[in-house]
Write a structure and sequence with these properties.
CATH superfamily of the largest domain: Diaminopimelate Epimerase, Chain A, domain 1
Number of domains: 2
Helix content: 10-25%
Number of strands: 18
Radius of gyration: 19 Å
CATH class of the largest domain: Alpha Beta
Order of helices and strands: EEHEEEHEEEEEEHEEEHEEEEH
Length: 292
């Protein structure tokens, strides 16, 4: 039976599934169907538990468009809560292998319930080949990027997945929805990129809007919060511990001198269930998507 647990970090929701329970091809079409908010369960992605030879557990992260992500801060926190409460892994820290590397997560427990999770998110890098971004080998910090007839000043960074940060004096949701997909698919980014527009409120607080690669306008994102925090520090706009404020709520990011990052924030469970036999039969048969 294809069971799932649905959790969210500040409204950024994922379905957690076990690889052993999935008896149909979990390809891009099936992922798009399951994640669709009208025709499927509905979510910002799928977290698939797998085995690992180098960590306690493996994790594959799928975006709702069917693509696979390297890392997700909110996804990792949701997954860690699931492992502690339902997955039989009560270990602190727990080591999780992702496509973007092995990360460590610590669950903060109130009684039997995990209400916050801290994740070591690895190191930030601004080097173009490591993001990746086309062009010379350089640090992509406060450089111009042409988007249509506009020139934006961007700082690009990898935190295990690619990000493009635009600092601005005013946040405009309509502008994010208009420019976000164009920056995501910009020719400069061979693997596409996540996009953040950020407004610095103080040296320890930044407000953001997010256009997530493969998901679109998103209420919150852990890796985006880390990317913005690192970019703010690199541009001299912030330092140390930074509260990142998004429409879904607040996350705390610590950027260390060696550019390693720690992310902490709330996590909650929404529901649990199983895919209906009717849907599973359609996924097994590779039925055409009803919405495309």
């Amino acid at each position: 039976m294809a069971r799932f647990t649905k959790g969210h970090g500040l409204g950024n929701d994922y379905l957690v599934m076990e690889e052993r329970d999935v008896d149909f091809p979990l390809g891009p079409a099936a992922i798009r169907w399951i994640c669709h908010r009208n025709w499927g369960v509905g979510s910002d992605g799928i977290l698939l538990r797998t085995g690992s030879g180098v960590a306690d557990v493996g994790l594959r992260i799928f975006n709702p468009d069917g693509s696979e992500a390297e890392k997700s801060g909110n996804g990792l926190r949701i997954f860690a809560k699931y492992l502690w409460e339902r997955g039989g892994l009560r270990k602190s820290p727990m080591r999780i292998e992702t496509k973007g590397g092995v990360v460590e997560a610590v669950c903060h427990v109130d009684g039997e319930r995990v209400d916050q999770v801290t994740v070591e998110m690895g190191h930030a890098t601004f080097r173009a080949p490591e993001i990746p971004m086309h062009g010379p080998d350089r640090e992509v910090v406060a450089v111009p990027l042409q988007v249509g007839d506009r020139f934006l000043t961007v700082t690009c960074v990898s935190v295990g997945n690619p990000h493009c940060v635009v600092f601005t004096d005013k946040l405009d949701d309509d502008e994010v929805r208009q420019l976000g997909p164009r920056i995501e698919a910009h020719v400069s980014f061979p693997n596409r990129t996540n996009v953040q527009f950020a407004r610095v409120l103080a040296r320890d607080r930044v407000e953001i809007r997010i256009w997530e690669r493969g998901a679109g306008f998103t209420l919150a994102s852990g890796s985006s919060s880390c990317a913005v925090a690192a970019a703010a520090v690199r541009n001299g706009l912030a330092s140390g511990r930074i509260t990142i404020q998004s429409p879904g709520g607040e996350l705390l990011v610590e950027v260390r001198e060696d550019w390693s990052m720690r992310l902490r924030g709330p996590v909650a469970e929404a529901c649990e269930g199983a895919l209906a036999p009717e849907l599973v039969r359609a996924l097994r048969a590779g039925a055409p998507l009803p919405f495309e």
